[in-house]
User: Fold this.
Amino acid sequence: MPSGDLGVLAVLTRSGERAAMSAVWDQDAAARFVEDLFAKHHAEIYAYLVRMVRDPELAADFAQDAFVKAYRNYDTLEKPENARAWLYQIAHRVALDELRRRKIVRFFPWTGESRGTSPSAEHLAMDARLSGDLQRALARIPERQRAALLLAELHDLSGLELAQALGVSHVAARALLTRARESLRQALATERAADAEAERRRTAERSR
Amino acid sequence: MNYLRRYRPRRDQWASPHQRARVLAAERIDGFVGEDDADWLSRHLAECQTCAAVAAEYEAQQGAFRDLAARPPEPPRDLWARTAAAIEAEAARGAATTDGGTGSSRGSAGRRRPARLPLGVMSGALVVAVVVGASLFARGTPVTPIQPPQSAVPSGTPRPTVAPQPTPFPIPAGAVAWIRQGDDGRFGLYVARIDEVCPGRDKAGCAPIAETESQPIANLDGPSAVVLSPTTDQLVLVDDPGDGSGGTVYVVPVPAAVDPGATPTPTAEPTPTPTLGPTATPTAPPTPTIGPSGSPEPTPTGSGLPSDSPQPSPDGSTAIASGVTLVGDTAAYSPDGQWFAFSAVPADSSHGPDIYLWHVGDAEALPVTGDHRSVFAQWLGGQLLGSRVVDADATPDGSAPPSAGPSAPSAGPSDAPSDAPEDLTAVVFVVDPVTSIETVFLDVPLWRPTVDPSARWAVFWEGTIEAAASGMTWLPGVGRLVLAGWSIGIPEPPIDPSAEPSAEASPGSASASASASPRATGRATAAPGASASRDPGGKPSESPSADRPEQILEAGRIADWEARWDPSGTRLAVWVADEADPTIGRLSLYVVDPETGRFDQTDRLLRDQPALAGFALADGLLAWATPPGQDGEGSRIQVLAWSGDEVGSAETQPGTDPVVIAR
Assistant:
């Protein structure tokens, strides 16, 4: 359960005892800190990762990795008020690193019903969402641009948080966001053109 | 907010007012535009319909995102439990970094180290074990995996190696053989006979398995895998110095002395001479046209047995491939012992995996695929069964651009278009070893099926596979390992359209049949039954039903796995690699009802036993090596044996070095 250890961390930070604390790296404190982070943010972190990688199971793995990394790097968070953006940054890097490092082969029959997650309504709904024009278009644009759009539009990160999460300067973050909007516009146009073409073919086949 | 102006081109630097308008329209969505620019934009949009349409599309994006935001995905219910367990494991690892256990590392995908695969990883290992089933005693008789060992047990059984202290009971004779480094630093082949074991899994008080060196093997750097031929007169040994130069695959003759129960009865089958040479057989190889990168220099195929190998090699051995890294642990002899298949990548990582085939007596192994995306799964009905990654939109013959294989880790520019995961899928194909003709057997995306001896059930991976960090090969990602019905049976040998015996075909004449070329992967003619197997549900057979159930062996993320059936088809051994160190994993032995394909999860003969990569499964005998460090001891070989309802076990004394068991 959340233990509210962020407060303790803040005191330590402000009093300059951070270095001393990190020297001994209190595992219990780190664990409580991550537990608190998890309680507050796991749903949005998971949602972000699902939208980035478009795979619920993979996203769950990445979310888990992100919190483990948060635990491991607990002593690198300088300002507790930045914990959310810091966590997004970790999750973002996990997703990007993995996406770039691996070419992932998707086997379509797999329904992802492992690990106690229900394959029924949840995944059907997910499939429906993934099938939307927007999701398909998002999948077509570069990963960093996709991340910028998701974080700004769906996760309400402020300009500063966005920059931190993406690991770039404010200027770069906003430039990235602007490019992302244009990329998405073009990708949506492509998707819609493909939809229209598919519909035209279906109509033609029916009329035969 | 105004700091953007310092970086944005001035008005006179825009390529066109339309470009400026589009950038501003996008920035306006996020509130980045100052008053002056906003005024200019409004005026421009009022005059330019095209730019106004673009601006409207930007605004429409926001509406679409709002719809998406209203339906957030629900995280899995067990996410915290998994995360907490991973953090606990992380904490434990930090507290005891010297612990050599096999704790879960599920939370460490970022540190995943899948580049080194079980078969080729233990270059530093000083001991390599080969566990041989009862077939070792069938010397002189071509033994197929289906043959019951009882029929091959010689009458004069040697003295038991397990002392009868805790009331041992007899089992059908089997043997355990392994290679390890002796006190003098050289490697040797050791054999132990197993015909009595102690009841249950309690080996306390049970005399250890005695080991006897049967044959020294010189000039080994770091043997990493051994596979004994069904005829027990030779073994294939992978030696990898671990310096990045790649491994060498040797064929080593096994003297009759290894066989403690040898009954050298002549058989109709020609038995290769103990000292193998390139000309030991007149049969021509399938002559694939593509050689492996880094493959050995073609050995002259002139007359005369070579008195020594082209390079320093184990005594009496022949190097059939070098400069390669074996992939996976599926390397195997064909049931008739005439062929040996394995998957490998070149040591220089220049491309992904291909399947290599060696015919007994030939000078070298040759690739039978050239797409660099194929791995060997098993022998099935005398044919080679493989899995291949293909483009999802490729033609049904499974052809795909070789360049799309895992030839190198993807490392494009950060803003390069991402690789859509759906771009790739997989097919199962068969290759006739005699003709090299390949057919797509199963155009259904499942990975590395392991079919039972009756060809009714199969274990396969259903989920994602991923390029290893090295970019050299493919590993399972997230999904599940299932046991399901296999209704398409055994592939029929393909009909050679040339109607000429392929053994007579030269590389040039082989081109008459394009399918004989490794690059001409997959003929349009699918094997019988394959078309019927195109099940949208993705099962290798018709949709699972009550009498064709599907059961999950493992689910989630796994680093690698290896599954094997015993000859009776009633025992299924499954080894699952640990994510942090894929040379170590968990070994389980399931009891499968051959009629229903069902197993009882709660009634495994062996459950998640820590084991090094590589194990041996014969009729009535499973053997594996424990990871070093367990119980504070070195690695040791353990044996689980069963006969009727009785189950017993035995083990060697612990050694000091890691042990890798191969078949």
In short: Residues 132-208 of chain A form a domain with the Arc Repressor Mutant, subunit A fold (CATH 1.10.10.10).
